[in-house]
Amino acid sequence: MARWCPKPATIIMVNPGEMHDGAPMGGARGWRIIYLDPALVAREIANEAVGSELVIRPVARDSDLAAHVVRLFKQLKAPTPDQMVAEESLLTV
Prior knowledge:
Elements lengths: L10 E2 L25 H7 L14 E2 L2 H15 L5 H10 L1
Antiparallel strand pairs: 1-2
């Protein structure tokens, strides 16, 4: 049976309340994880998602999104992050 394995720069997302074990499928891979409180996300996109439930597609193969995620992680890991860049990156992601 063939197993799906993400390519580099693949963004994997989990919807609020969705169960997962975090275990890699077939082989090792690295994880960098950001947990976003669903209430915070819902508040930020309220004007776009009025009356609808937040649903995130689980896999994104989007080089622009991947670049923004990398930028966000650089800010989160920086010894002295640029708060404006970090916030802009988070909102863009």
